[in-house]
Known about the structure:
The structure holds two protein chains of two kinds. By secondary structure, chain A is an alpha/beta fold. Chain A folds into three domains: 3-75, no CATH class; 108-323, Rossmann fold; 329-403, Arc Repressor Mutant, subunit A (Orthogonal Bundle), CATH 1.10.10. Chain A contains 19 helices and twelve strands. Chain A has helices spanning 3-15, 21-31, 34-44, 63-75, 90-93, 127-143, 155-167, 187-196, 213-224, 238-248, 266-273, 282-288, 290-294, 296-299, 315-323, 329-344, 351-358, 366-373, 377-389, and strands spanning 79-82, 101-105, 116-120, 146-149, 171-173, 198-201, 227-230, 252-255, 277-278, 364-365, 393-396, 400-403. Chain A has a nine-stranded mixed sheet, sandwiched between helices. Chain A has a three-stranded antiparallel sheet with strand order 10-12-11. In chain A, helix 7 (155-167) runs parallel beside helix 8 (187-196) and helix 9 crosses helix 10 (238-248). The N and C termini of chain A lie far apart (56 Å). Chain B is α/β, with parallel strands linked by helices. Helices cover 37% and strands 17% of the residues of chain B. Chain B has 20 helices and 18 strands. Chain B has helices at residues 39-42, 44-54, 81-91, 121-130, 143-146, 160-168, 202-214, 228-235, 244-254, 279-283, 293-296, 312-324, 367-375, 379-384, 396-400, 408-425, 439-447, 450-463, 467-484, 491-497, and strands at 2-11, 14-25, 30-34, 63-69, 103-105, 108-109, 115-116, 135-139, 153-157, 218-221, 270-271, 284-285, 290-291, 301-304, 326-331, 334-339, 343-348, 387-390. In chain B, the strands form six sheets. Chain B has a five-stranded parallel sheet. In chain B, strands 1-2-4-3 form a four-stranded mixed sheet. In chain B, strands 5-8-9 form a three-stranded parallel sheet, with helices on both faces. Chain B is elongated, with a radius of gyration of 28 Å. Chains A and B meet through helix 18 and helix 19 of A and helix 7, helix 13, helix 18 and helix 20 of B.
Amino acid sequence: MENNEINLNILKLFYNLKIKPSDFINIYKNNKNIEETLDYFLKNKKNSPKLFNDKNNNFFQTEKDLNLLMQYFFKNAVFILNINQKEYPEFLREIYFPPPILFCKGEKIKDTDNLKIAIVGTRNCSDYGKEVAAYLSKELSKIGFIVVSGMALGIDAEAHKAAIKESGGSIGVLGTGIDIQYPYENKNLFEEIIKNGSLVTEFLPKTQPLKNNFPARNRIISGMSIGVIVVEAGDKSGAIVTAKTAIKENREVFAVPGNIFSEKSKGCHSLIKCGAKLVEDVDDILEEFKNYIKDPVYNKSLNFNINNNNDDDNFKLDYFKKNYFFENKSKDKKNKSLNNIRNLINFSDDDYLKIYNCVGYKEKSLEEIISSSGLGIKKVLQILSFFQLKNVIKEKNFNNFIKVS
Amino acid sequence: MFFKIDSFALIGIEAIKVNVEIHISNGMPSFTIVGLPDKSINEARDRVKASIINSGFKFPMKKIIINLSPADLRKEGSFYDLPIALAILALSGQISSDFFNCSSFIGELSLDGGLDPVKGILSMTQKAAEIKKKYFFIPESNINEAALIKDISIIGCKNLKNCIEILKNKNEIDKYVYKNFEFKNDNLNKFDIDFSEIKGQYRAKRAMEIAVSGMHNILLIGPPGSGKSMLAQRAITIMPDLNFDESIEVTKIYSLIKRKKYELITKRPYRNPHHTISETGLIGGGVYPKPGEISLAHRGILFLDEFSEFSSKHSEALRQPLENKSIAITRNNLSYRFPCSFMLILAMNPCFCGYYGDESRKCKCSMREIERYWKKISGPILDRIDMQIKIPRLKEELFLKNKDIENSSTIKERVKKAFLIQSERYKGKEINYNSEAGPEYINNWINQDKDLKKILADFSKKALMTARGISSLIKISRTIADLEGANEISADHAIEAFQYKISNII
Lengths: 405, 506
């Protein structure tokens, strides 16, 4: 059977004959053959007199409208991936209850060579969380991972944005129909992600963002990824649900530590306590995927060469040798940027250095800088501004300055 | 029988000449006022009648018609009591004087013949001088205000009888002319508040100094209790004193609204309207247009606290006056123009709960709420605000420190110098301050320096600034250079100016 025909038949089973997707998956998992599975259901069930009527979705109710649905997909460049297809995410196929069909928009999902990794977190995140999400997403994209997330506000959006900026694409998994931009604040992101990345959902078009949809979405996010990174999550955050499903499906779970007083990091901390891997930098993540990275199937899509001496201990160091300009992180970086600063401008006075030394990697308020440097407000502001412009120092919160790490 | 006396009507802050014409004829005794008078003028009939009788004269029992010309202009106010009374007395032959032709009259009569003060006296005096009148008879309580105009002899009258005595006294009229006024603005501007009361907040204070020096509009963002209102209130204490011309401009506006003291305003106005103010109250208007808060803040400060609470209607209405420095209100085919060249200070919290970005107290707002909060503020308005600064809450240890804090008068001296440089630069031009400078100036300012151009290009790349953003950055740099007394803007000035720009608030 052609893929199109299979898709149509599957849609017919679920939305016309009222077959439960879980039944379908059970049979399919036994025989591993989509055509047999379809035959099984189509033979045993005559067209049911009861038409499918989902009160949450009135897109179609009759056979005639099923064609309407296909037309709609064709018009809007939405394509369907069924579980039997090669392009269907291979990790997703193996979870307990994979979605039999996925409605997709954007080509990135078909990219089966690259490993996918999920970055999730709270919608109501802190500046710190945003920064971490963007940093990890950027670095992982650089290496060759596809970042998967849930298109929500906060951490999700930051991860998507950074990935799109770095590699041009990312995969967003929706808890709504493919045509619904939820949350609406992310509408620009929705437009961007379609261009190079992908949107994926198992829900029919026009499905509203219902509460129950999101745990189902989370299982897809964790399902298609090799690991889930929880950047910032409160105690009852949806990101924790994603992490829990990830654990059930045997995925790696990473958690980024935060401030111990922050409500927004409570969930991450409890994950770490339960055994999730603490993430300080990208190498903490890579370490867990050694086997994948060495696997020639994935290796070719990754952007860095690994040492072939099979020495596990050297692995981490190799990545950084290739990708960063320093070996001993903190020391070299400091010297480097100091030299940089000297080169940037031939500043006549040592005041620049004074201020540079005043500001550390911990936030320092303007008042403290003024009193410890002993310079006038005018001069301090000038110098800080200068460093901000050169991306050496940045302002955090209100009036607090910190070196860019 | 016909007689006429000169008086004035107000259109906005400008006065125009009005002829009070009277015709008395035989017939049924009556007393009519024509020429589009309002209620307060029509009621003048009873006041005039009573005061003429109570001053010991006779009210003629004839047919009296008063015409206020030009007849098609709607007139309001109680200015015409005195001219009407004098016209009746003159035409009925009870008084005669040589001064009616070379004088103008204005005043409200009370029933016992006393003269009460009227509003808008300064504009009228100016007009009287303009049309080359020799004497201007006004109520005595208005005299301090009117005496500011030098080209005319002001005569203050206690009551109707007093006025008539002066008029009759042919040779001694000059001794009644008020001469005692001198413009002094040295010791008047004493404030109870001072800049030294603000602890810490170095950046905000420096920003305020620059903002005042160039009359740049400024937005203060900070959590509750960080001292936004305190800063705004004290901005007025570092502004240079009003000069004479500016004083007159301000007094002319204030002269239009009721107030207790009728004299010259020497303090720069500080207006702080509540956010429940009506649009008319803020911009000006009404059937007979009155100046709104923006005009009352002319040459001074308009402080809108909790700006996020102001309705979008208010902020949109502010856009045009901010650009034009004056507001035209059109009613009944007449356009009333009020000046409104003010410095705008806006203060607001960074989010609903107020603590976004605060270290010690965590913000409870969701990202979406914060975005919604900022969406309320209109982009075009934020674009017109040259400077934006964040004001954090003070840390405890800074409360106790009390050294090296400048007081208002020290800062004021520096601001004065910057004002002087600007008035030199814009001599003979329509603008007064750097904040008003247009592209023709801005292009000149940056043409010389290559470093400066490079820095500006860097800024626009880093902070995604709009063209307006960059030009306001240059204007701030110009003011910083003026504060230093530098002729040209250097890269250092522009770099400092960057500190007062928040490219991305949330």
